[in-house]
Structure formats: structure tokens, C-alpha cells
Amino acid sequence: MFDKLRQIEDRYRELNGSLSDPAVLGQPALYAKTAKAASELSSVVQTFEDYKQLLGGLESARRMAAEEPDREMRELAQAEVRDLEARQGKLEEELRGLLIPRDPNDDKNVFVEIRAGAGGDEAGLFAADLTRMYTKYAERQKWKVELMDKHETGVGGFKEIVLFIQGRGAWSRLKFERGVHRVQRVPETESSGRTHTSTVTVAVLPEAEDVDIKVEEKDIRVDVYRSSGPGGQGVNTTDSAVRITHIPTGLVVTCQDERSQIKNRAKAMRVLKARLLERAQEEQAAAIAADRRSQVGTGERSERIRTYNFPQARVSDHRINLTLYRLPAILEGDLDEIVDALAAEEQRKRLQEPS
């Protein structure tokens, strides 16, 4: 581990030196790339520097604990040794975590696609509950939420809704939400008081950058149509809704949220690129190892990852056997305890992988 840390330290110094090189300064794209690379290493280098300073202090404390003739001073030195040894262990664990290769999507914005599954209207209502939960969570994280597309059920729920969530760490936190979410509760329309079970599927896609996915005009078909709505003055009376079909893959994306056809087309293209990026990454991963699983669960749409039980006010995440009895708070966006536990489990598994 320490050989690797020293290599990172050398690389960090090299990158910082390049930032003052006129050849790099004269190329904005290269300068930005170099600055980003240095920034990504800075936390590792700083933590390693803290660790080396701690080792120096620990050596001095041990020497004093062994050689100091004054008993009181010797006992103080022994206490300091114990404290520094505890901090040493924590710093070593932190350094191991920092050496884990980062998910290349961690800093990306995300599209969150929420779809009603089994359960009819009740599934649609729960899709609305999850939409509110993720919106509230984004507000807590100071992320920006943008509605991309929605298809309502007519009873206050959603057949499907797509959110764009923009902010630092959006992918790294929300990627654990991928999968099937199950709800157990008594629907308002249930006269006998019987608990029903419904499901909602959540897909989380990293935003595609232009360098990731290029979509040629010749490969898409764009159709425009009149936006649908519940009626009244809000109904769009122009053909502003957009449907984009990606001909090579058959992927279809619709957007009707904006009154402007141009804005709807731009939003739909962003969603299409994200879906194409997801497909490309899945194909690449399958080519490397067909049976490779994600670090926490498989991430497949068909997998039940979490249950929300209303009668018991219970939320259970089945991937890590975590059960919390504070469902109302979680539905208000208090997701950090669950996300932190999933992130810790992911890190634990990755630390166990052979380097």
C-alpha cells in the first residue's frame, strides 16, 4: 500500500509542476484535464502526509514512554501512544479506502426514472411517493431537480416520471436506488383494511457527456405531437411534445413537459444519450465478464432491493439486511443512514477484492 501511496505522491508533484508549464498553460483543455487529475489525487496525498506526521509523533511518544525517568511524564507519553495508535489505525483504513479506484461516474449528474410496476393505481401512487422522497433528498443535498417527463395515472400517481438531478455526488449517492422497491400498505380504496403489496422500479442513469456518446442526426427520427394533459387551460394546443426514436437501437424517448418543441427536443436528447451510455457501459462490462455483479446487489430491474411497510412504519433494505422503523422520515428524504450503510458495504467488498 505504501509503495502505491509514494507513487501517487510523485505523480501529484509532477501534475502540479505541469500546471505552471507554459506549454500546458497555453492549452485550456489540457490545463483543465491536468488540474482535474491533480485535484483527484490531492485528498490521498494530504491524508498520506497526515499519516507520515502521525508516525513521527508516534515514534517520539514511544521513545518518551520507554525512556522518560519521570513516572508522571512517562504515563502521559503512554496515553499519547495509545491515542496515536488508534488514530493510526483509522488513517490506514482511510488510506485503503482512498486507494480504491473511483467509479468514473461518481461526479456525474443523474437521471432518475421511476415507473409503476405491479399493483395498478396503488403502484402509481407509490411512484409519486418515491418521486417526492428523492426530490426531498435532493433538496437536503442542495442538488437541483428538473422534471424531464411524466405520465400521470389520473388518481394522483405516475405511470412513469423522469427526473434530472444535478449536483456534486448525485451518482455516488443515488446509484444504490436502482432496482425494484416494494410497498406494503392498505390502499385508501380498500374497505376491508387488507394490506396490498405493490412495486415500483427505479432506474438511475449517469448523464452522458458528448465525449461519451455521439448521436448522429441520420440515426434518429423525431416526431412531434400534441401534449396530453388533464384538460382545462393548461392543455398545450400546439404540437410541442417530442418523440425521438434512435433507429440503430430502437430506443424511444418522449418529452412533453415544456411548451416549447425546441426545449422538449433538447431534454429528450439528453435522456436518449444517458440511455445509450447505460447500454454501452453494460455491453462493455458484459464483454469483460458476463457474470460480474455490482458491489451491492446486481442492480437489475427485476431485483427487489427494498420494502416499505406502512403498517409497521418499517423500511428494510434487503441487500444489507438493514431495517429501520422510521418510514415517515425516510419518505421525507431522510435517506442518509441507508445510503451511508450501502456505501460502506460497497467499500468493504471492494477492499476485499484482489488488487
SSE order and pairing:
Blueprint: H1 2-18, H2 22-25, H3 28-67, H4 71-99, E1 110-116, H5 121-140, E2 144-152, E3 158-166, H6 170-174, E4 179-185, E5 196-206, E6 220-225, E7 241-246, E8 251-255, H7 261-288, E9 304-309, E10 314-317, E11 322-324, H8 327-331, H9 336-352
Helix pairs in contact: 1-3, 3-4
What does this structure look like?
The chain has helices at 2-18, 22-25, 28-67, 71-99, 121-140, 170-174, 261-288, 327-331, 336-352; strands spanning 110-116, 144-152, 158-166, 179-185, 196-206, 220-225, 241-246, 251-255, 304-309, 314-317, 322-324. The strands form two sheets. Strands 2-3-1-5-4-9-10-11 form an eight-stranded mixed β-sheet, with helices on both faces. Strand 9 and strand 10 form a beta hairpin. The chain has 355 residues and is of the alpha+beta class. The longest helix is centred in the first third of the chain and has 40 residues, at 28-67.
From the structure above, extract its key features.
single chain, 355 residues, alpha+beta, 3-stranded antiparallel β-sheet, 11 strands, 46% helix, 21% strand
